Amino acid sequence: MASTFIDGLLVRHTSKFKVLPRGRLDKQVLGRLRDYIVAHLDEYIEASALAEIDGRSPFHFTRVFARSVGMTPYRYVVHLRLQRALELMRERRHGLAEIAAATGFADQSHLSRWVRRVHGVSPTELTAR
Question: Is 6 within a domain?
Fold first, then answer.
């Protein structure tokens, strides 16, 4: 009996547990959120819709998301939209207006402003690189 007790103690105190820091999202939830955003990239995405996926209130979700990812949900959505827009621009099959519509930007100038804000150059200069 003593041997079983000692084995139990050793297992409990020497094995690593999957412990998330308090107030963080785990990788599975982040993956589901990313999949949802990518699937709805051309639509208006509210933080409340993302919070529902995680099962938290929008306020709490926004704080936990920012702590986990390093940016707000809105900035993350814009980040993914910009990534997809840049992929489409590099393919050179569509005009900027079409790309803006397909990636959820209001219009071509909205896309251009975000590209300039994040990358410091215009979309045409960025795709020429």
Answer: no
